[in-house]
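Long-time lurker. I teach an intro course on protein structure, and each term I like to show students one example going from raw sequence to a predicted 3D structure in token notation. This year I'd like something fresh instead of my usual example. Would anyone be willing to generate the tokens for the chain below so I can use it in lecture? Attribution to the forum is fine with me.
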Amino acid sequence: MSGSTGGAAPPPSLPRWTILSVTTLGAFMSALDSNIVTIALPNIAKDLSAQYSLLGWVLAGYVLAVAALVLQAGKFGDNFGKKRMYLIGFAVFGISSALCGLSQNIDELIVFRFIQGIGASAMLATGIPLIFASFPASERGMAVGVNSIAWAVGAVLGPLIGGVLTTIDWRLIFYVNVPVAALAIVAGRLRIPSALNAKSPLAGRINFVSATILGLAIGLIMFWLTLLDVRYAILGAVGVVAFAVAEARSKNPLLSRELLRNRGFVFSAVALAIMMVSFFGIVFLMSFYFQSVAGFSPLIAGVWVAPLPLALGIVNPISGRLFDRFSRPAIMAIVGAFIVIGAVFLLSGALKDTSPGLTVALLLAVIGIGGGLVWSPTIAGALAFSRPEIRGVANGTAFTMIYVGFATSVSLVVSVSTSSLPAALSAAIQSGALTGLSGSSAISFDQGLINALLVLAGVGIVGVPFLFMVLREQMRQRKLPALTVP
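-- Reply from a regular --
Happy to contribute to a lecture. Here you go:
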């Protein structure tokens, strides 16, 4: 049965605002790193002679690690303590950031980005559960919204700081994470109570077999989407079947069977994944549009990309606050989804001009507004459907779906944007010639990016019915007797 969002406040001795501050620092760091990397990709390609498809893996490798491990990290948090896992994640993230900056070729960078994703999985799996454990039910949506502010500030500053640092040396975009990680670790050790290291009474054992099979299956599917090689599609499908069989036979499944029976949670997680496919690839795509098609410098490209995360940052805390007041917060997510889909369709038309106008910046801001209406209500709603004792696993499951959507979005952009290009231009782009495009080459690549936008918008349409299913479950839940859970 779904858990209610009502209930008693946490113990007053818990310093919830300090905990929120530490977790928001983690959100800021994660968003800053992601957006800095996106802006720097064309320069990384030039410096490391990296193929376009491999550049996608600088993002996708990180995302693959998160998607494959965030569930296990949630279980580790439930078993060994959320505080402990959160701080370990920060340490791994900081160390691997330094190693990314030291990379001498694209293969090393992808490996170290994968390790970064391992650290991020621990942070993501425990950050929001720490907030839920620290705030009363009436303030959780607000707290998630505040956490989203830090994410949005990092997302806004990411393109701008990334543009500045990339102009000097792209390696600085990774080194900047190291002092932030050190600050968060010190603050967390001193201020997060040891009480949050308590083992959950319903914590499950760690399941490395299912986690490995899941990671391989996701990776193979991503290779298929990136390279359009049917062999990877077949192997990925075999991996999905093997994962399903392993889960069915396991006495300790990776995916909570209770959550799989919880329709509200399942619909929320699936909706998040699909909407993230339609949303996350846009910044990746626009970075190449501004630098490869329009010919802007990394700094100017960062300024042009900024309206999207800026709008997202303004709307996220507002929608989080409204989550606490709306009995059916999925309505906000549905409205946001339609805004994103419509704005992406319009953006595809605006990109037909290789010299962007203010319409492009306005549409990016509108997409950010729609994304903010989708994000906070849906992720907070997914956790509200679950019982407090398994919210670590619930949060991990939700973020697994989100990051699968992220990886799929980037892979789709890479494959669709090059699939219709002339062979010579496609070969040049795949070899890393992503700057200095002009004339017919810029126009052709621009059309490929437009095609990718249309595909992302079409995926968003598929996600809308799942948001309506979430709304139906919220309406059904309101008719049930209130449960007295925290």
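Some talking points for your students: The domain at 16-207+252-478 is CATH 1.20.1250.20 (Growth Hormone; Chain: A;). Confidence is low (pLDDT under 50) at residues 1-13, 480-486.
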